[in-house]
## 1
Amino acid sequence: MAKRGTSVAAGPGLDFLQFNDLACETVGGKVLFATDEYFAPASNLLKGALPQFDSSAYTEFGKWMDGWETRRKRIPGHDWCIIQLGVPGRICGFDVDTSFFTGNHSPRVSIQGTCLDSSPDFSLKGNRTGMAATDSEFAEVAKLRSEAWPELVPLSPLMPGFSDCCHNFFTSSQFPNRVTHLRLNMYPDGGIARLRVLGIGQRNWASVSTHDDVDLVALPNGGVCLGFSNAHFGHPRNMIGLGQAVSMADGWETARRLDRPNKLKVDQQGILQVPGREWAVFRLGHPGTIHRVEIDTIHFKGNFPDSCQVEVCSLSPDEEVQCIQNRWTSGKWRLLLPPQKLRPHHTHRYDEPVPSGPVTHVRLTIRPDGGISRFRLFGRITRITGAVGNQQRPSSRL
Ligand SMILES: NC(=O)NC(NC(N)=O)C(=O)[O-]
């Protein structure tokens, strides 16, 4: 198990904790089956919000807990559930978060995974607190033969959910294949607050034509954040999530920079002249040519950035490794979108960016600081050799 607070390698210089959560309910992840949901339903595992605790909250079944919690087992066997990922992809690691489960946390887990051709047509519905799986649900799930799925995390101990040790990190680098479904096993029973499944989406690009318009940086299309200067209030990966942001927490928000001058000056376009900036770098899901940029400041009203700019480059796998290792201080960046004044709570559409040719990486820079809720890069895929795209990367690298 990887220790809390340490960087967890997912490739040369990469930390899988920065990757996307492919199972979160906000990207369509769902629990299809759970052996038992007596104290709290398994669907809680996939909530986007951080786990909560209310010392005075009880249900008719026992203490209210914000996670998946089964009854104390008095029969042979162990508890498990089947999760359908919202975004199929390569899994680099897991965070099994036991927040607030102390004295009732699951002592051990293992995780299995597979890639199914089609989604099973059954799924748990509604609040299942107080329920165990029925015989017909067991018969349905038996058809998946999930007990034989490859093991991504072997049987491993879990720490209880005290605030200093509630994150149990596991790497999954030994399993390079695309995954659509997981089986989470608790031995023998107990509670887990959240399961974060960290990886990179993998779309089937063979079915996409070079004439189709696609968001090349979107999470389901394989976009991934590979570096950033500041993520104090919200991680930049949130910007490539599905749909419109639900709140400020669903976007990228930096801390206020401390180097903002006492008296502010603007240039002729009304853009603030300040020394400070914040940035985030993404690898596109597929190399492509970008012809439309969207920058959304929805929800950021008193804290939107004054301006932004977008740069692009095309990197080979080795060049990408070098850039990650030197924290993106190098790179062959070209301007895609020159500095633009931004407005609060607004979707900015730029239909005529600088023609750039095929690119693999993008850097969004904001001045001096603030929040962006969504970042979209519409374009067309280009089938080029030698450049980095998730679908073309050797299995030894992400
Ligand atoms: N106090 C508890 O949490 N007890 C039990 N759990 C719930 N949720 O009531 C248990 O022992 O598993």
## 2
Amino acid sequence: MTHETPSGAAETAVLSIDGLSKTYAGGFTALKSVDLDIRKGEIFALLGPNGAGKTTLIGIVCGLVNATAGRVEVFGHDIDGDYRKTRARIGLVPQEMSIDMFTKVKDAVAYSRGLFGKPADPGYIEQVLRDLSLWDKRDTQMRALSGGMKRRVMIAKALSHDPDILFLDEPTAGVDVELRQGMWQVVEKLRQRGKTIILTTHYIQEAEEMADRVGVIRQGEIVLVEETAKLMAKLGRKQLILQLAEPLMSLPPELTVEGLTLAPDGDALHFDYDTKADRPGITTLLASLNAAGVSVRDLETRQSSLEEIFVDLVGGAS
Ligand SMILES: Nc1ncnc2c1ncn2[C@@H]1O[C@H](COP(=O)(O)OP(=O)(O)OP(=O)(O)O)[C@@H](O)[C@H]1O
């Protein structure tokens, strides 16, 4: 399947999902006719609250869960018709850790490669371990690693057979801020190695900081797919903060302008406006301030974060 890039050139999707649905045995429908194309070399964040269907989607693509309806193609090959070929091009870092704690790092990663029937390649395994800053720990048993290192071993295992597409299912769940940022750097490095990365997350900041595109999934439906930057521009609201030369006790009556509020300590005015509107009304606001004799010491604008957009879209949890 192809799609148009912003420059207008057709580009092949590395992963193409078409009308994918899943109803579990108990009758619960976890995915409802999902369509999604993933572009080569991108970092795509699948963002959604608990139970939205993210893991089910990954499970189907990786052959762990059977779809009820729909079609998935990896590099143009149907996953059902060509399972071995398509699965070999995908690496999966699952949410839960599944490693024997007495195995050494290097052996755990080499073993994973063997599961794909690929011949041993110590040079490649070394490169993977170096990329993930695990080379020094290659002979350490899993049980002696920190939590962050264990997560990186999970990534190394998923990369052991040199896949083109890497799924990271909540790579930073329960991880502190520092480790999370370390993980972002790892993901960026993998992209530079040419991998296409799809990660699931509940963390809005993660999608905003890392992803080229964001897909929002809610109750089994993709409700939005957009380039992160465009999404910000399209849906973002801005806030203008006006630092006052003299604090105000209350907002003067002649300044009853929609979207204008006085900061709690009275030293600033906050003006919320829609960047999509033809005229955000800033000129009028400044004229009204002037007329009311209110002087402004400084101005700054703030872009709303994807978090607010997400809360708007999905209303928090499903
Ligand atoms: N084996 C199963 N049998 C029945 N229902 C299931 C099964 N696996 C998942 N579900 C249900 O399908 C829905 C989607 O689950 P899924 O794990 O795909 O969501 P998720 O978006 O990955 O959630 P989280 O962010 O919490 O991991 C949930 O309501 C879940 O309870």
